[in-house]
TrEMBL record:
The keyword Lipid metabolism is assigned to this record: no
Species name: Niabella ginsengisoli
SMART domains linked: TPR
Per-repeat ranges for TPR: 77-110
Keywords, alphabetical: Repeat, TPR repeat
Record-given protein name: Tetratricopeptide repeat protein
Length: 325
């Protein structure tokens, strides 16, 4: 295909995407269908057409469009994701499961595919299989946020979990701070501190019964601060508890368990921003009026934190997924 024709197809794809964004799916399908007739080997057009049909709820046509993409050498994880969504919309769960298995064979380090497969297994009433896939996704693709979200929610529902809902939830809140789900996960983390972690009368005994070495170390370190929790769990008391936690953690466990989230806490402490961070994390979901008063009283400090926080991207590195060890 000559360069002029390629530029024309690129222009048609952009026009179709503009139609999709405005909700005009009929025109998106029309433009992409015409473009597909010009070059039936353009997998990008096929994928966009499948997406337009999916939004249109024309699932049979969507499958017809996405299947050649999956069969082509140009396939990517997003194509398997789209195919999975189409199968799920049809409630064809066996086909969706086969699709995700095939996708993970081709892309064994795709965080989104592990996430979506886990969500399918949850729909299929297989929560054990779901959390195994979310955990695997965290291990092989630690910079993808979706698996942290789903794993945090899963663990929050488990009666005996006192660690992972808190850890994974806070990681997600940092990785996806602009996502609308971030506030709900912050509320869940705050509730986990109140209802799961510090509700215990003996965190030392809980730690002794914990088989996972990282979780055991976290519980042992929090146990030293359990007295402060008697004052109630608020953004202010959590700032005190978590400050002492980091100081103790760095003394006892930081070398054995290097962990980006705790390193970030330490950095904020050194910069005098940790109180602001704890307000950002817990203040609005605890008491909006009190949060606004705190910010007014600490405006310079909070503005400095906000500038710092929005100037960086929080990502977890490889080799820090401890829940499977």
């Amino acid at each position: 295909m000559n360069l002029l024709a390629q530029n024309s197809l690129s222009s048609e794809r952009q026009r179709a995407r503009t139609f999709m964004q405005s909700g005009d799916l009929d025109n998106a399908v029309l433009v992409l269908t015409k473009a597909n007739e010009t070059d039936k080997n353009d997998m990008g057009i096929q994928k966009d057409l499948a997406l337009a049909y999916y939004y249109q709820k024309s699932y049979t046509k969507a499958l017809e469009s996405i299947k050649p993409v999956i069969a082509s050498p140009d396939c990517d994880p997003a194509a398997y994701q789209l195919a999975g969504n189409i199968y799920k919309a049809q409630e064809n769960y066996s086909a969706a499961e086969k699709n995700y298995k095939d996708g993970l064979k081709d892309f064994p380090k795709s965080g989104p595919l592990y996430n979506d497969y886990g969500e399918l297994l949850e729909i299929m009433k297989n929560p054990t299989g779901a959390i195994q896939h979310w955990e695997k996704g965290i291990q092989v693709a630690p910079s993808y946020g979706g698996n942290y979200y789903n794993a945090a929610v899963y663990y929050y529902k488990q009666q005996d979990d006192k660690v992972w809902a808190i850890i994974y939830g806070e990681i997600y809140a940092n990785m996806e701070s602009l996502n609308p789900k971030a506030n709900s996960i912050k509320k869940m983390v705050l509730d986990a501190y109140k209802q799961k972690l510090f509700i215990s009368n003996n965190l030392k005994a809980d730690a002794a019964n914990q088989k996972n070495a990282f979780a055991k170390a976290v519980l042992e370190t929090f146990a030293k601060q359990s007295g402060i929790s008697a004052q109630g769990i608020t953004p202010e008391s959590l700032a005190m508890i978590r400050t002492r936690f980091i100081l103790d953690w760095n003394t006892s466990y930081a070398k054995e368990f290097p962990f980006k989230l705790f390193d970030y806490h330490q950095q904020l402490m050194k910069d005098g921003l940790f109180d602001s961070y704890n307000q950002w994390m817990f203040g609005p979901v605890d008491n909006q009026a009190n949060f606004e008063k705190w910010v007014q009283a600490h405006k310079e400090e909070y503005d400095k934190f906000t500038a710092f926080h929005t100037s960086r991207v929080f990502k977890m590195p490889v080799n820090q997924a401890y829940s499977l060890k």
